[in-house]
């Protein structure tokens, strides 16, 4: 009977988790995060509602695994490249030069932590808790799982303010998770456990280097396919090992799971593997966890105690104040609405608050009512934060989609190319030294060429050459081209293309993600192809059969299968590049933000598709 009851409860929870996305879509509840809807559904079928589900071994185990996997994916969501200190200066809509994003984000989070601590002292004075540091962690946490999709939906993820908001959330997620683990280690009754955390981090470092070594071996790629799926096996092994070590040294299992996610993120996994992990986590385990959070939440008990009823709005106000006050420092560079919108979005908090509430209740820092109040406030913040953000945050200014292209070296290759590029797509500037001979009559009639005294880095910086979106370097000297390309990449130029004839230098630059071309090898390859496969060469040499690249940036079509795309005309999608992966498209292939589509077709048709996907 117990087994039957267990299966019945599991069936109800799984069916509810399956139906939630359909309900949100049917009633157009786009403002409500799916995880929040899952908790609300759990409340409806749990002890605060119809009481259809009771916790048992099956659900407890799957819920725990879901919690662990949620913490793993939270670590995986952290893109450590955002900490790269780009030297490229971006001019903001206000006309000011943007600040150092990493520095400003650290300052904002530090202020969030200080304000949160001050507010925590108020809760101690009022008798809700006797541990100010624990309350500080609760108030200062920010949910990456809510911030990231909201920024993507608003189409400002790649903007200066979007990256700053993201960095604050990443720093908050990392800091509060680590501090929570240290706090639990110090307050769980096991003295001397603190130094044992070093074992966990040491194991993490060792596993990182092992992963970095093995992922480059050729046989690993072969084992990543078919029934072996070695990459997925390695990830789950990493999670279980670090969770096991975490519990062995007296820390919470969530720290081991979070560390596993961070390590996988540092190893830069391919997009396909990340999608598999997301699908498994958010498609099965994590929904069970969130539904069970709602099932076990006793809402009615909160109304029995007037003191707790007062606590809920106080906590909500504390969350807003702790974020809105610190972001005022951004007012120096951004307008009031942008600053306010940023603070409101950073108010969103969920998974870590749920984790802290459960841990706090278990180690007797807070009682069950306080824990329920925390979870309820977290749910409310995840509803209000994104809604208010969308209402207040100014929409990104419509700007020209023409990319700034800077060409270093005016010669018989680069000059004709500058004329053939569509001005609507590329704003081209050409730079060359005074010593180089350029036909002055042709230059004055067709080209806008800026003369430089030399190709030194300082001279190029003064001319703002590195501020271009695309930098093409084609002087006559490989060493010069290489030096400029390396500096441009470090400076933060989005794309760097360098003409290199020496194979050794070319290989070094490719390691730095710099695109390389060679006049000699390109000509040789084209001539060989013309002999062996003339039909293929015609694609490149005849304008009506040209290949084009279209960047997918429109969130409206994110996840849309190609067969459902509203317009292709006579455009044929030849290949889709997603991160480092090359995908042969078919009707069920879904478009993703950041995809680079290689297409062929008539100019008008291609331009139409480009317009649809660019916004």
UniProtKB/TrEMBL annotation:
Q: State the source organism's domain of life.
A: Bacteria
Q: Which residues form a coiled coil?
A: none
The alphabetized UniProt keywords are: Antiport, Ion transport, Membrane, Transmembrane, Transmembrane helix, Transport
The annotated topology with respect to the bilayer is: Multi-pass membrane protein
UniProt signal peptide: none
Which segments cross the bilayer?
A: 6-24, 31-50, 62-82, 102-126, 132-152, 164-186, 192-214, 280-303, 309-330, 339-357, 369-389
Q: Which InterPro entries match?
A: Cation/H_exchanger_TM, Na+/solute_symporter_sf, NAD(P)-bd_dom_sf, RCK_C, RCK_C_sf, RCK_N
| Main location per the UniProt record | membrane
Name its cellular compartments: Membrane
Domain RCK C-terminal stretches: 533-615
Q: Which PANTHER family match?
A: NA(+)_H(+) ANTIPORTER YJBQ-RELATED, NAPA-TYPE SODIUM/HYDROGEN ANTIPORTER
Q: Which family does it belong to?
A: Belongs to the monovalent cation:proton antiporter 2 (CPA2) transporter (TC 2.A.37) family.
Name under which the protein is recorded? CPA2 family monovalent cation:H+ antiporter-2
